[in-house]
């Protein structure tokens, strides 16, 4: 029997990307005439703008900061029969005062999404820059394989922190057009990178400076990230299983010599994952959700394994949600992360600070990490007032983030919010290490 070689796998990944491109091109070519006869072009332009004024709240912090930002987000969609397209870009202007991250630029231009689409109801094909979020839990998504978040961008709108890449995606209804079974396939040629706001004292404990990198990896047509998901979307229950083979958006740091000096460099290693998520209702009020993924990497060489913490892990989230009163909802989630083959040994200098840095960043100080999120939200449509409070923390390490906010809709187009990020915990814990970055901010939104 002939064995499958590495070359076969690489060729297969490349072929899958170009087959999806060819399929999209073929659909566009042969559907053009019928699409033109079915409808005239329909444009849907939108404009969003917001400003955030964020201030550090920790007195005596040597790297206290303020970030003042203004963002314009024009969005346009066009539909022409079965053909369509979306453009979603963002222009950011920053005015920083002692910002604790040298990689934050005063002006940035981000193409969030820019893709063409073919859809006939049962089949949807998209090609271009896309954000492809997967998962159903709130805030913590083990099966969100294809998106990263830009935590350097201080905003209460978590969705605006999402980053995507150059992607070909397919969604296919399996069977009849009203079938609850759906197949999703994704091939991503440029994987986004998670961007961190790293406190200076955490960087100091690592002993070397940190290399700041772009938000997206370079194009990789030979080894693109690939994923597939099969879902059952019923009226009372939905469940899916998924797989992923690509680059992890979470960096693991290593020390290399750059320009004759040691530098802390993020490594985005190849990773694989299998996962599941779903939800179902109980009675009229209760909703139960779950999401879980098993991750493992293909880098176990001693030069990396001694410095970078990359054991396989199982991440799971189970949550319940229900209304308490007419305008108030409560949501509780239990979080669990388990590392297989976790090694309790502490490396000797000079690698010990680096080991601590990686374990803090990846929340990997213990083989089993248990946590929870609790969210209470209130929204009164008549008055336009609302409030939200979310607590996200870990029991074993006793570190947490509390994020309260109050907002008011002045009109249908204008919304003003006051929000705070309050970190607590020991400095060698993932959320406690961010305590110097606790902040309060005012956020104004305008949409047209």
How many DSSP E strands? 22
What can be said about the biggest beta sheet? 18 strands, antiparallel, barrel
Fraction in helix? 10-25%
Oligomer: single chain
Shape: globular
List the uncertain runs. 1-15, 32-37, 99-104, 301-306
What is the CATH class name?
A: Mainly Beta
Structural class: mainly beta
Identify the CATH homologous superfamily. Porin
Question: What's the Cα radius of gyration?
Answer: 23 Å
CATH topology label: Porin
Summarize the helices and strands and which ones pair or pack.
Blueprint (H helix, E strand, L loop, with lengths): L5 H33 L3 E15 L9 E15 L2 E15 L9 E13 L3 E8 L17 E2 L12 E2 L1 E9 L7 E8 L11 H7 L18 E9 L3 E11 L4 E7 L2 E7 L2 E13 L3 E12 L4 H4 L7 E11 L4 E12 L12 H10 L6 E12 L5 E10 L4 E11 L4 E11 L14 E9 L1
Antiparallel strand pairs: 1-2, 1-22, 2-3, 3-4, 4-5, 5-8, 6-7, 8-9, 9-10, 10-11, 11-14, 12-13, 14-15, 15-16, 16-17, 17-18, 18-19, 19-20, 20-21, 21-22
Helix pairs in contact: 2-4
What does this structure look like?
With 448 residues, this protein is mainly β. It has one domain: Porin. Helix content is 12%, strand content 50%. The chain is built from 4 helices and 22 strands. The strands form 3 sheets. It has an 18-stranded antiparallel barrel. A two-stranded antiparallel ribbon has the order 6-7. Strands 12-13 form a two-stranded antiparallel ribbon. Strand 19 and strand 20 form a beta hairpin. Helix 2 runs antiparallel to helix 4.
């Amino acid at each position: 029997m002939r064995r499958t070689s590495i070359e076969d796998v690489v060729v297969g990944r490349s072929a899958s990307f170009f087959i999806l491109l060819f399929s999209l091109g073929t659909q566009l070519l042969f559907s053009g005439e019928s699409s033109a006869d079915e409808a005239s072009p329909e444009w849907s332009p939108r404009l969003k703008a917001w400003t955030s004024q964020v201030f550090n709240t920790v007195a005596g912090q040597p790297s206290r900061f303020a970030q003042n930002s203004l963002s314009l987000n024009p969005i346009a969609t066009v539909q022409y029969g079965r053909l369509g397209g979306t453009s979603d870009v963002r222009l950011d202007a920053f005015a920083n005062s002692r910002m604790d991250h040298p990689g934050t630029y005063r002006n940035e231009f981000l193409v969030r999404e820019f893709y063409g689409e073919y859809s006939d109801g049962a089949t949807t094909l998209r090609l271009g820059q896309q954000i492809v979020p997967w998962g159903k839990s709130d805030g913590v998504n083990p099966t969100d394989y294809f998106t990263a978040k830009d935590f350097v961008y201080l905003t209460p709108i978590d969705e605006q922190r999402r980053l995507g890449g150059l992607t070909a995606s397919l969604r296919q209804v399996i069977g009849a057009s009203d079938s609850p079974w759906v197949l999703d396939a994704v091939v991503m040629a440029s994987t986004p990178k998670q961007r961190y706001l790293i406190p200076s004292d955490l960087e100091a404990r690592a002993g070397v400076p940190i290399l700041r990198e772009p938000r997206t990896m370079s194009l990789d047509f030979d080894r693109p990230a690939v994923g597939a998901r099969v879902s059952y979307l019923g009226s009372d229950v939905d469940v899916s299983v998924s797989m992923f083979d690509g680059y992890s958006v979470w960096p693991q740091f290593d020390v290399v010599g750059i320009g004759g000096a040691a530098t802390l460099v993020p490594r985005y290693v190849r990773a694989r994952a299998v996962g599941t998520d779903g939800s179902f209702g109980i009675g009229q009020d209760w909703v139960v959700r779950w999401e879980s993924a098993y991750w493992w990497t293909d880098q176990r060489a001693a030069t990396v394994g001694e410095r970078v913490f990359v054991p396989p892990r199982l991440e799971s989230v189970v949550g319940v949600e229900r209304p308490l009163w007419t305008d108030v909802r409560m949501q509780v989630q239990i979080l669990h992360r388990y590392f297989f083959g976790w090694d309790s040994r502490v490396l000797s200098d000079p690698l010990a600070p680096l080991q601590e840095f990686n374990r803090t960043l990846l929340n990997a100080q213990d083989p089993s990490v248990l946590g929870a999120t609790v969210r209470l939200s209130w929204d009164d449509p008549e008055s336009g007032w609302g409030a939200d409070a979310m607590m996200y923390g870990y029991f074993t390490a006793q570190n947490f983030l509390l994020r309260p906010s109050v907002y008011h809709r002045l009109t249908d187009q204008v919304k003003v919010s006051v929000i705070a990020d309050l970190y607590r915990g020991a400095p060698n814990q993932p959320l406690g290490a961010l305590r110097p970055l606790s902040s309060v901010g005012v956020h104004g939104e305008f949409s047209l």
